[in-house]
Amino acid sequence: MTLISSAPGGASVRRPAPPSPPPAASSRRKQGGVVLAVPALIWYLVFMVGPLIAIFVIGALHWPGMLQPVSFAGLGNVRTVLDDPVFSESVGNTATQLVVALPVMIVGAYMLGYYVAQKPPGHRALRYLLFVPGLISTPAKAMVFYAVLSPDGLLNGALDKAGLGSLTDAWLASPSTALFCLIVLDVWSGIGFTAVLFAARLGSVPDEIGEAAQLDGAGHWRAMWRIHFPVIRDFVGVVTMLQFLWTLFGSAQNVLLLTQGGPGSSSTTLSFLVYQKAFIAADLGYSQTVGVVLFLVGLAGLLTIRRVFRQNY
């Protein structure tokens, strides 16, 4: 094959095309790429697919402790879980947690991120302040909330001094407020970090879009939801999926540190129930059956969020 190019004098000059690599060399490059991917593939199979399969296998066993004899239970664990009122209550608590915490966190973080992206005075310091909760360990966050919400804590003290002593309560020990205290902790822990992510993404939106909206007479509220939100809709979906997974699977540590699932089971979530049955009740079959339910809920939630936030163009 030859290429035709123009010489300085206007004459056409035929030049040979660069030789294409032989099929053997191309095949060797592809094989080399496969070899480099083998360690990552092995890691994925051992530490990702392996535990996933183990959840389904253990969920079909009767296993009353790590050193106890194992027997096949079949669907017996499923019937036990479905008949357990604690499981039913934990499903309701998890649903309440997701329905309340996730919209509040995403909407609040998006609005806060939009404000930071407008670069108000002190916006650099504000970015660092918003990121602070993400730098605090979970036990430290739990200690802060315990100091605020304990019977003799800061919240009750402030209510007493304000003449509202009738509103004081044992917030973490009351069946009507324990779960919502955990939801507040989830929102406080995640809203600042999520706002920083939104601010970074909004900062990459071309300035011409915002300027055109201002020329058309759009205020900040309309520009935020009608102009900028559709542009980063796919990114909002990704952040929503991450926070959904964190709230669904990561709530166990806050429950363990603050309420132990109580009073009764009023603040028991699905993720904490997995821990409780595995490490406290030593019922591994029951625990992993709940783990299967948790996995299916997570998968269904991810697919739903992806469908809701996918781009329409």
Largest sheet: 2 strands, antiparallel
Nearest-integer average pLDDT: 86
Following the backbone from N to C, one meets helices and strands in this order, namely EEHEEHHHHHHHHHHH
Tell me, what's the shape?
globular
Instruction: Indicate the percent of residues in helices.
Output: over 70%
Low confidence ranges: none
Q: Note the beta-strand portion.
A: under 5%
Describe the structure.
The chain has 313 residues and is mainly alpha-helical. Helix content is 70%, strand content 4%. The chain is built from twelve helices and four strands. The protein has helices at 23-59, 76-83, 85-117, 123-135, 138-149, 154-161, 178-203, 207-215, 220-231, 233-258, 270-280, 284-308, and strands spanning 2-6, 12-16, 61-62, 71-72. The strands form two sheets. Strands 1-2 form a two-stranded antiparallel ribbon. Strands 3-4 form a two-stranded antiparallel ribbon. Helix 10 (233-258) runs antiparallel to helix 12. It is globular. The two termini are 41 Å apart.
